[in-house]
Each structure stands twice: as C-alpha cells, then as structure tokens.
Design a protein that fits this description.
This protein is α/β, with parallel strands linked by helices and about 220 residues long. It has helices at about 15-30, 35-45, 50-55, 65-75, 95-105, 120-130, 170-185, 185-195, 205-215, and strands spanning about 5-10, 30-35, 85-90, 115-120, 130-135, 140, 160, 195-200. Helix content is about 45%, strand content about 15%. α2 (about 35-45) packs across α3. The structure holds BIS(adenosine)-5'-pentaphosphate, magnesium ion and zinc ion.
C-alpha cells in the first residue's frame, strides 16, 4: 500500500492499543512504534535508559517527558517512518502531544487519526492479569482470549512469554489512576483538532480491528 498514514492509538493501559497497533502496522505496511516496547527492550539489554525507565515503570508511573520525547523523536526520524507509522503509548501527556505537533509542523506534516480504544476500568484488570508478553519481540497474548499456539512460547519468534512486572494488580490500579489524570485529557485535545475517533474496545479483537479499518478507509 502506498498511502502515508500517521496514526496515534489512545486508550487505558490494557485497552488493546498494542494488539490493534500491530494489526494496523501489518495491514498497511507501516512501523508500529511503542514507547513501552522501546523501554522494555532497553531494560532487557541493561542500558542506562532502561534502568532509569524501569524505576518509573515498576511503580506504574510515567517516564519523564524529556526522556520519552527524545526517544520518540529519534525513532520517527528514521527512514522507515517516511511511509507513516502507528504510535502506541505516545503521546501520554499534553506536553508530549504538543512537542509532537511542533515537530510535525516544522515538516509541514500532521497526525491523520487519533483512535481511542475505549474499555472501562473493570475490564482492564482482568485483561492485565491474563496478559503474557514476549520477552524478545513484544508480541502480546492472553491466557484466555488470545492464546499462543504453544503455552508460554511466542508464536512470532519462539521466545519465552512472561507476566510483565507492571501487570501485578497493585501496579495496575496505579497505572489506571495515572491514565485518568495525565493521559485521558488527550481525548479532548485530539477531539478539538477534529481527528479523534472512538472504537468500542470491549468487542472481540477482530471486531475492534474491523471498526478501526473502517475509520482508516
Ligand atoms: P505501555 O507498554 O505503553 O503500557 P500501557 O499503556 O500500560 O498499555 P499496555 O501495553 O499495558 O496495554 P495495551 O493497550 O497495549 O493492551 P494490549 O494490546 O497489550 O507502557 C508501559 C509503561 O512505560 C508506562 O506505564 C510508563 O511507565 C512507560 N511509558 C510508555 N510510554 C510512555 C510515554 N509516552 N510517556 C511516559 N511513560 C511512558 O492488550 C492487553 C491484554 O488484553 C493482552 O493480554 C491482550 O491479548 C488482551 N486483549 C487485547 N485486545 C483484546 C480484546 N479485544 N478482547 C480481549 N482481550 C484483548
Ligand atoms: Mg501495549
Ligand atoms: Zn516474540
């Protein structure tokens, strides 16, 4: 597909941003960029960035804007992003969104769609405790809803599946609070720009995806 699309995925932790972003990226041949995945890769490789990010992530807090913005801007400046991208987990604060806008502005460019995957808090808790994530490629599964072919093993790359450190129930509550305080205001932010679309994220994963494809086409 030769179209250039820049998409932002909004939604609470566990709403399915990553699951849907991956489907979008595969269908349209654009990179899937998850700041959470970038941080986790750094943690796994023991980098200084990873150590700093981990101290916030394990508490369910956001990594400071300065750090996050720099990483994201470096990533979207890479060659493969010329054909567009789907951002998953960025922006997460109004200042992050403003920096992104400013950078795109300089290039006479803009975000095309902000898609809010809407899931109530009650459903979130259940999803998180059942989630298993690949230590290597970031692919996500669920022990009931989205099972891997072999238990505990990633379909994509054959590596081990684990419960994320920040998916413990105590931390999930904190992440939800942080979401409502710092990230939810982005829904109005993009609403005012006229590019916000909301999908019902409580549906089956494929139904959510169909709703998103309708929006994009
Ligand atoms: P990040 O990795 O972005 O985590 P998050 O926003 O908390 O979101 P999740 O990845 O937990 O959920 P998701 O919406 O991707 O859902 P998923 O598809 O996996 O960030 C982690 C941390 O990094 C943050 O807390 C913060 O500290 C830091 N960070 C990252 N970005 C930052 C930024 N910009 N600024 C500052 N700090 C930042 O789905 C969840 C589960 O449900 C899975 O098991 C999945 O299989 C299942 N599922 C998905 N869809 C469905 C469905 N339709 N029905 C049933 N089950 C489903
Ligand atoms: Mg995710
Ligand atoms: Zn994998």
């Amino acid at each position: 597909m030769g179209i250039c699309m820049k998409i932002i995925m909004l939604g609470a932790p566990g709403a399915g941003k990553g699951t849907q972003a991956k489907l979008i990226a595969d269908k349209y041949g654009i990179p899937h960029i998850s700041t959470g995945d970038i941080f986790r890769a750094n943690i796994k490789n023991g980098t200084a960035l990873g150590m700093e990010a981990k101290s916030y992530m394990d508490q369910g807090l956001l990594v400071p804007d300065e750090l996050t913005v720099k990483i994201l801007l470096d990533r979207v400046a890479q060659e493969d992003c010329k054909k567009g991208y789907v951002l998953d987990g960025f922006p997460r604060t109004i200042p992050q969104a403003e920096v992104l806008d400013k950078e795109l502005d300089k290039l006479h460019d803009q975000i095309d769609h902000a898609i809010d995957v809407d899931v109530p808090d009650e459903n979130i808790i259940k999803r998180m405790s059942g989630r298993r994530a690949c230590v290597s490629c970031g692919a996500t599964y669920h022990i009931e809803y989205i099972k891997p072919q072999r238990e505990g093993v990633c379909d994509e790359c054959g590596q081990e599946l684990v419960l994320r450190d920040d998916d413990r129930p105590e931390t999930v509550g904190r992440r939800l609070d942080v979401y409502h305080e710092q990230t939810q205001p982005l829904i109005d932010f993009y609403g005012q720009k006229g590019i916000l679309k909301t999908v019902d994220g409580t549906q089956d994963m494929q139904d959510v995806f169909h709703a998103i494809v309708k929006i994009l086409e």
